[in-house]
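Cyclic pyranopterin monophosphate synthase: structure tokens wanted.
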Amino acid sequence: MPGLLDVILGYDCNVACDYCTITPAMRKRALTPAAVVAAMRRGRAQDYDRIAFTGGEPTIRTDLVALIKAARQLGYDDIKLQSNGLLFSPANVARLVDAGVTRFHVSIHTHEPQAYDALVQRAGAHALMEQGLRSAVDSGRHVVADVIIKSDTYPRLAQAIEWIAARGVNEVHLWYVSLTDGNAEHVESMPPMTEAMPEIRRALAIGRARGLEISSLHIPRCLLGEDWTHAWDPGSMRVLVVTPDATFELEDSRLAGQNHVPACAGCRFEGICPGVRDDYLARFGDAEIAAARDQAPTLPGVVRLPTIASR
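Answer:
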């Protein structure tokens, strides 16, 4: 069965997002070029026909173009590059497209310049990101904007979707902040899903109206309500993740939903919903899921979390 090989080249980055799960110790770890090529060869032997280069920030690697060319030569039909876009000058994007990139994913943490620079902790970063996004769109390749939902970004999510749509982006993925590893102690960064849902619904409606393909990656369908068709579970696909530390199926990742609570029993989505993430249940318990199913909660939330291994 065809599938996606998701290669995390390394954990180092040229920004320091305030919600990042990557710790300082992790930033020192990266795959060698030989290890990447070996993983790509194994992937093709196992019928993986798509590949994603992610990080950290993959564009800071001097061997990135060579690795993309190797992926194309090995026969990967679809080559995705995930980036913050700060190094996406027109010339760099042209080189990446010539090497074989078929789609760009650009992280749009928030659309407001001052808030963006504060979030990534780098002055002038928003201008670079916006130029990079423009270069990616102008390349003619498919462009996906990855948007983070956290306590200080969700109130302006609808405006962010308008901003993204106005720049010719094809698709938007909404990522719910994770309380793992480097962000484990920042529990205030994660809002309750039901608190964020009104703004998320406005954002989804704007996306539909503007012709965007817009998906929510971590909110259970029961909480999305009538917008449940926007739910997308990447782990439902055949995805093999290769990192500097381990190789594993995406469905086994702690960053994907893995828990079905008692209220999930009998839900019409039970067979397709992966459940709720560990970090979310530890923070808020199952009260929201139970309420959506007209049941009593069974799991209490807590204020602080232990560090959860990044897998």
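Residues 3-256 form a domain with the TIM Barrel fold (CATH 3.20.20.70). DSSP finds ten helices and nine strands in the chain.

Cheers.
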